[in-house]
Write a structure and sequence with these properties.
133 residues, alpha+beta, Trna Endonuclease, Chain: A, domain 1, five-stranded mixed β-sheet, globular
């Protein structure tokens, strides 16, 4: 089997997100094309959030993973005018981080830990699907 290109890996993460969100009872809509800064609209009770999905395999040490969250057009962060939530999928651990964009701020990459009891700034968003409600 051939190695997947980064865009192909991202598309697979989007498919997994669609299934994960829909199986939790969310309405999930995929905009046509690639011109918008978000990948999905995720709805619950008539309220919709703009969601950008990222994935990573890049390990930092034993339990931490690096997530690149910059926009494809350059090393610029997403803003609250573009997205509401960034969802990071850690492929080797099969774990999801659901992070409001205001928590990311102006950074274009961050690390998360999949270990219980970790102390990273964004680790509290592990499996925080409630934030999409």
């Amino acid at each position: 089997m051939r190695k997947l290109a980064p865009k192909e890996r991202g598309e697979l993460a989007e498919i997994k997100f669609l299934l994960a969100a829909a199986s939790r009872g969310f309405t999930v809509a995929k905009p046509w094309g690639d011109s918008l800064p978000f990948d999905f609209l995720v709805g619950n009770n008539g309220r919709y959030l703009r969601v950008q999905v990222k994935s990573t395999r890049r390990r930092l040490g034993r339990s931490r993973y690096n997530v690149h969250c910059d926009r494809p057009s350059g090393k610029r962060p997403y803003t609250s005018r573009q997205i509401d939530v960034l969802v990071a999928y850690v492929v080797p651990e099969d774990k999801w981080f659901v992070i409001p964009v205001r928590e990311i701020g102006k950074i274009v990459q961050f690390s998360v830990s999949c270990r219980p009891g970790s102390r990273g700034r964004l680790d509290r968003f592990l499996d925080a699907w409630r934030l999409l409600r």
